[in-house]
Amino acid sequence: AHGFIGDVRWWNVKHPDAYAQRVSAGDNAIDGFETLDRRSRHYEDVLLGIRLRSGLETAVLSESERRRAEQAVGDGLLAYDGDRLVLTERGRLLADGVVRDILDR
């Protein structure tokens, strides 16, 4: 499991037994952490936000990213809900690719 606070992302030990041992001993289960740069944080925001039922605010996207999102709308992968983009049923199946296609490279 991963967690975020601000620009810091951390992850827990992967093996359930190791996780249980740490927690039982009163320790935390954090296995590592990293500070995200602006580009990585934007990627995470889009990657996670677009999967929300409420969708992703278009305001977080750059102009070029909005144009590519518009293409995904045309392809039936995204739909507008007010000022938010939400994945369609088909888009949910291809969510990683939708995000990859939208983000600036």
What is the alpha-carbon Rg in Å?
Answer: 17 Å
Ends: how far apart?
27 Å
Summing up helix and strand content along with how strands pair, one would put the structural category as: alpha+beta
Element pattern in H and E = EEHEHEHEEHH
Largest sheet: 3 strands, antiparallel
- For the record, the CATH class of the largest domain is Mainly Alpha
- Indicate the CATH topology of the largest domain: Arc Repressor Mutant, subunit A
Strand order of the largest sheet: 1-2-3
How would the blueprint of this fold be written?
Blueprint: E1 2-5, E2 8-12, H1 16-24, E3 30-35, H2 38-49, E4 56-57, H3 63-74, E5 78-81, E6 84-87, H4 89-93, H5 95-102
Antiparallel strand pairs: 1-2, 2-3, 4-6, 5-6
Q: Can you describe what's shown?
A:
With 105 residues, this protein is α+β, with helices and mostly antiparallel strands. It has two domains: 1-35, no CATH class; 37-105, Orthogonal Bundle (Arc Repressor Mutant, subunit A), CATH 1.10.10.920. Helices cover 44% and strands 24% of the residues. The model has no long low-confidence stretch (mean pLDDT 94).
Could you provide a short overview of the structure?
The chain has 105 residues and is an alpha+beta fold. 44% of the residues lie in helices and 24% in strands. It has two domains: 1-35, no CATH class; 37-105, Arc Repressor Mutant, subunit A (Orthogonal Bundle).
Features:
alpha+beta; 105 residues; 6 strands; single chain; three-stranded antiparallel β-sheet; 24% strand; 5 helices; Arc Repressor Mutant, subunit A
